[in-house]
Design goal:
It is a single chain. 38% of the residues lie in helices and 14% in strands. The protein is of the alpha/beta class and 400 residues long. The chain has 16 helices and twelve strands. It has a domain at 19-119 and 278-327: TIM Barrel. Strands 9-6-5-4-3-2-1-10-11-12 form a ten-stranded mixed β-sheet. A two-stranded antiparallel sheet has the order 7-8. The protein has helices spanning 49-52, 61-72, 93-106, 126-134, 147-153, 163-176, 194-203, 231-248, 256-265, 312-316, 319-327, 333-336, 341-344, 349-353, 366-390, 395-398; strands spanning 26-30, 78-83, 112-119, 138-142, 180-186, 208-213, 217-218, 223-224, 254-255, 282-286, 290-292, 303-306.
Length: 400
């Protein structure tokens, strides 16, 4: 399988250097803040407008150039830029042309620079895709399944469905050779349709998939929203998708959660942060230059500082960042005695807070993960042993 990363395919310039000054991290960049050209019912980021005020939000060249220069001066062997939103394509192509120019200017010989654009896909056309292909950006495209399921929650401001525009964007990616994956937000509608989703994605030739469970708390009721899913629903969905994945051939389709578990069984560590020991893989950079520990925690408590005032290296090693990283290890007793702890590591802190019992609670998806582990581990362990016998690379090298 072709080597692939969620943050880009990687372009090496010259000979790699050997020195690095700290543990590598990825930048999650919000160049348009919460601004988006569609109005998904379940979007959690629209609420961040309160932090930055109303109106149009766009990253200035001063912020972008400072961010790129500072980050590349950390001199990681591989530096990953993940452009997100809101909708990052609203910045326009000229902005990203300047981004690439700054990356070339400030990158060192041999430094691998990767870019990913997490997008709703509605604005991707020939011009966009020629650019993405030329500079080897990975496009992560949000698609919730067939038209009926996708359009139920993913509509524009006029309440029109977006499925046809997204599929046109995917078609443009294919025509121009853009590497892309698909992110599926599992909500109360599509989580009930695992076979329908699987058949749709296979029929469409989509082979790189990430299923993200939706759970949002309604501030008015302090209860999960109607579009959120339960742990049992998530577990049933994952188990059924796992069966279809196994039948189809694990090396023919990449499912990020399964790849991450398999990577752990091979001793390479998880490929997604949900299963990591600590939360220290990312720094979020907002359009203003404000930085935060995680895009699920863009809130004053977890503000690191502004890159126009403090170098990124200092922000990454700040006490706030270390404190945020450590909180993932503050586990519930149920987690500490669980036989799956070495795989789950307590899950995402956001999903613990969703229980209403604080970060030391078990994940709201705990039982779903336990269902998956109990169902899938025998097969995954056998697959890991087979890969080791063949001396094949772990999923972190050939999938995500």
């Amino acid at each position: 399988m072709k080597r692939w990363s969620p943050y880009g395919s990687g372009v090496s310039r010259g000979t790699r250097f050997s020195r690095q000054v700290m543990r590598p991290f990825t930048l999650l960049i919000k160049p348009t803040g919460p601004d988006c050209n569609i109005r998904c019912t379940y979007c959690f980021y629209t609420g961040k407008t309160a932090l930055f005020g109303t109106g149009r939000h766009r990253m200035s060249d001063a912020v972008a150039e400072t961010m790129i220069r500072d980050y590349l001066q950390c001199r990681f062997p591989s530096s990953s830029f993940a452009w997100q939103g809101g909708e990052p394509s609203l910045m326009g192509l000229d902005f990203y042309r300047r981004v690439v120019a700054w990356q070339k200017e400030y990158g060192a010989d041999g430094q691998i620079v990767t870019n990913a654009l997490q997008t709703n896909g509605t604005l991707l056309d020939g011009d966009w895709c020629r650019f993405l292909a030329e500079y080897q950006f990975l496009a992560g495209i949000s698609l919730d399944g067939p038209q009926e399921l996708h359009d139920y929650y993913r509509r524009d401001a006029a309440r029109r469905g977006t499925w046809e525009r997204v599929m046109a964007g995917i078609d443009a990616c294919r025509r121009h050779g853009v590497e892309y994956n698909v992110l599926v937000l599992l909500n109360d509608r599509n989580v009930q349709e695992p076979d329908r989703l699987w058949d749709f994605f296979m029929d469409q030739g989509i082979r790189y998939l990430q299923f993200v469970p939706c759970v949002e708390i309604d501030p008015a009721t302090q209860k999960p929203t109607a579009f959120s899913i339960t742990a049992e629903q998530y577990g049933r969905f994952l188990c059924r998708i796992f069966d279809r994945w196994r039948e189809h051939g694990p090396r023919k389709v990449s499912i990020r959660t399964f790849d991450s578990i398999l990577s752990q069984l091979l001793g390479a560590g998880p490929t997604e942060c949900t299963f990591a020991t600590r939360c220290n893989d990312y720094i979020v950079v907002e359009h203003t230059g404000e930085t935060f520990c995680c895009d699920f925690f863009v809130e004053p408590r977890w503000r690191l500082g502004n890159i126009l005032e403090t170098p990124i290296a200092a922000l990454a090693s700040s006490e706030t960042k270390r404190r945020f990283s450590r909180q993932k290890r503050d586990l519930a007793h149920k987690c500490l005695v669980c036989r799956y702890l070495d795989l789950c590591r307590g899950g995402c802190p956001k999903d613990r807070l969703a229980t209403g019992r604080g970060v030391k609670a078990e994940s709201c998806f705990c039982e779903g993960y336990r269902m998956l582990f109990g169902h899938a581990l025998p097969t995954l362990r056998a697959l890991a042993a087979d890969l080791q016998r063949q001396q094949a690379p772990p999923p972190s090298a050939w999938a995500w």
